[in-house]
Amino acid sequence: MKAWERVEEGKRQGRGKRKGRDRVDWMEVDEVVCLPRLPRVAVCGGTHGNELSGVYLVRELLKAEKKVMEKEEEEPLSVLMVLSNPRAMQQCRRYVDTDLNRCFTHAKLNGPIPDNAPYEIIRSRELNATLGPKGNPEAVDLVCDLHNTTANMGLCFIAYSDCDWICLHIFRHLQRQMPDVPMRYIHFDVSNKESYSLDSVGKHGFAMEIGPQPHGVVRSNIYTAMKVGVQHMLDWVRIFNSGTIFEGGCVDVFTMIKHIDYPRDNETRNITAAIHPKVQDRDFCLLHPEDPLFQTFSGETLRYKGNEPLYPFFINECAYYEKGIALSLARKRRVTIPAIRVQTEQQQRANEQEFASEEEE
Amino acid sequence: MSSSSCNNSACLNEARRVAIFGGTHGNEMSGVTLVNLWVKNSAEIQRKGVETKPFITNPKAVEKCTRYVDTDLNRAFTPENLSAPGGDNLPYEVQRAQEINRIFGPKESPDAYDVIFDLHNTTSNMGCTLILESSKDHFNLQMMHYIKKAIAPASCLVLLNEHPLLKYSTSRSVAKHPVGLEVGPQPQGVLRSNIFEAMRVILKHALDFIELFNEGMEFPPCTVEAFRVLERIDYPRDANGNIIAMVHPNLQDCDWEPLNPGDPMFQTFDGKTIRYHGSGTVYPTFINEAAYYEKQQAFVTTRREALVASAIRKI
């Protein structure tokens, strides 16, 4: 493959449009993939109004921003701080009418909206106008959407791609800078067409999910982990933009396979069992077929009936009772990530020309 | 309540009518789940000589899985609310309070239920806590002593809220002997199996005690260690009322442990420590309870006290 064609591959990978699985063979370990600069980053909190670490962190960053405005950088990074769902935040609820973080599919962002549209549908379009439009070259380069979970998940990146080298490199950077924080990369294998969350609006994006924290509460250790994580993320972007080469390596990626709901009463749909004490708080501890999974209220153990061992996560997340999810299950695999660096101006210009001619086609 | 002293024991009426309240806060799931279970099948809570009624106090809040709809039901049982005219125009929880007072009260009358257990969860790391509203309720003190002994070595602490200003009008206050049961930590809207089972076990022992008492067992004098509520401590706030600091990592999850003058108490969002500057050692609890952010409470301080319970037996 010619060097020019490799830049092409890198460009496409940078947008995460193709799967990583068939990439590993041709990729040479010391080949550096060049990716476009990331001049605009958005940090979003309060997408769910009761996930308070992100709410308080973005509020603090907005306050600090006013003081730091004058600080000069050679090529300043534009960081947008956004409080995504102010009405839900005010009421300290997850959402007002409907879950904002499910309102970012192309279908929901476009087309007509009725007069009495849910608040969050109106809000998602506002956010799409500010941070997007989704799929458009005007969109911000990176969206980091801050979330908390009642599950014992530590710090997780949740992304739609397992070959977005930007997100994977940022993740690896945080792992190295924060070795005391348990950290995992979760991949939801959802196409760009079907992607539904706020982080899908940017050219690159991921949710930073930290738990365990009850909704409506801010725990200092969780807040601090989020604050430090965001700081390292922004540092990485600045370092990347300045031309540093980030060496390749490996990242363990957890790809979501399926969800399991609680056992429920046929009539009332009320749950009839709780997560088994042996599983509770054991996110990312391998669950084997026949392992205890639920405990009914009469004390009976219900077992996992899958045919392969999988990694559970989002175990007993409060907000997922209404979505019919007691826990989610993932397969783990090791993903090789290439060395990357920012494109030179020449490469960037060629990149833009190429993009323009693609559009003409 | 009729009682008299005979042979150094307080003689009390049998506790014939007992209620178990769940869903006073609609998102505190252990109580909601247990009461729903027992409404369907009450075998587990039946005891000889006792009528035990499981009851969901705030069904609308339970349905929405929210703490309350209009106003906190567990603050609504004030004399003003209970006698307020207005029917359907009243806030939902005030209407509920009046209905509950009709069924299980009237509060402070001879017709009121003997015992009400009110089931709650907290996001605080309080473990199993029994909440007492009067240091002179010897029946309740004996019950709590019995429960503590029965579950040992597991622990169950007693919180006494007799503070004239901080005390509040709870749903259980309708009964002659109100007992609050608070188990945590559990996030709102979440059902944790260990928390659920712990609450169930405590209720089992509580009902056993009532059965034994009604059968004529005499309970000798005893001492019950309790934590008496002293004051409520709010989060540091700015001029606009916004919280500017969090519970300090050294204090987070340390319910019931001594907090000494000079110990870290809060941590500002930019990492500075704010210390406790009280005059002596206190025992904080309800540390970082989600529902109390809006009630201006980061935690309450308590002091340890040994409460003496007279011997009791039934009349």
From TrEMBL, chain B:
- Please give an example of a GO cellular component term from this record: cytosol
Which CDD domains does the record match to this protein? M14_ASPA
Q: Residue limits of the Succinylglutamate desuccinylase/Aspartoacylase catalytic domain?
A: 15-210
Q: Where in the cell is it found?
A: Cytoplasm; Nucleus
- Alphabetical list of InterPro entries matching this protein: AspA/AstE_fam, Aspartoacylase, AstE_AspA_cat, Aste_AspA_hybrid_dom
Q: Which residues form the active site?
A: E182
Per its UniProt record, the required cofactor names are: Zn(2+)
Q: Which keywords has UniProt assigned to this entry?
A: Cytoplasm, Hydrolase, Metal-binding, Nucleus, Zinc
Q: Which residues are recorded as binding Zn(2+)?
A: H25, E28, H120
Question: What are the binding positions for substrate in this chain?
Answer: N74, R75, Y168, S169, T170, S171, R172
Which residues are noted in the entry as N-acetyl-L-aspartate-binding?
R67, E182, Y292
Q: Which residues form the signal peptide?
A: none
Tell me what this protein is called.
Aspartoacylase
